[in-house]
Amino acid sequence: MNEAEFDQAVEAALDELPEWVLPRLENVAILVEEEDTDEPDILGLYIGVPETIRGHEEPFEPARILIFRRPLLAMTNDPKVLREEIRITVLHEVAHHFGISEERLEELGYG
């Protein structure tokens, strides 16, 4: 899968989100990067303060969701399986923005 196809798979995962989610992601940067320099095996990362603990008085840096291309590509050569792994990773990181824990994501099958 080339870079453009990978980016399209990320966009397709975002397009699957319910309509109510998209406005709440307006100030969230969703970026594709090659890998995390500290943890090169992780697939994605949410950087920010989840909506569930944000207050109205405190200014926060905009949240970011990073999707890491290299470890996802290393998982499989099957484009269908890869698109599903990208979808799960995007949903997993979006869920963190809404305060859903790793444990709950595991229970839901998005671990």
Describe this protein with a few key phrases.
single chain; 111 residues; alpha+beta; Zincin-like; three-stranded mixed sheet; 4 helices; 41% helix; 13% strand
Account of the 3D structure:
Helix 1 crosses helix 3. This protein has one domain (3-53, 61-108): Zincin-like (2-Layer Sandwich). 41% of the residues lie in helices and 13% in strands. Strands 1-3-2 form a three-stranded mixed beta sheet. It has 111 residues and is of the alpha+beta class. The protein has helices at 3-15, 69-75, 79-97, 102-108, and strands at residues 29-33, 44-47, 64-68.
Set out the fold topology.
Blueprint: H1 3-15, E1 29-33, E2 44-47, E3 64-68, H2 69-75, H3 79-97, H4 102-108
Helix pairs in contact: 1-3
* CATH topology (level 3) name: Zincin-like
How confident overall, as mean pLDDT? 88
Q: Detail the poorly predicted runs.
A: none
Strand order of the largest sheet: 1-3-2
Strand runs, count: 3
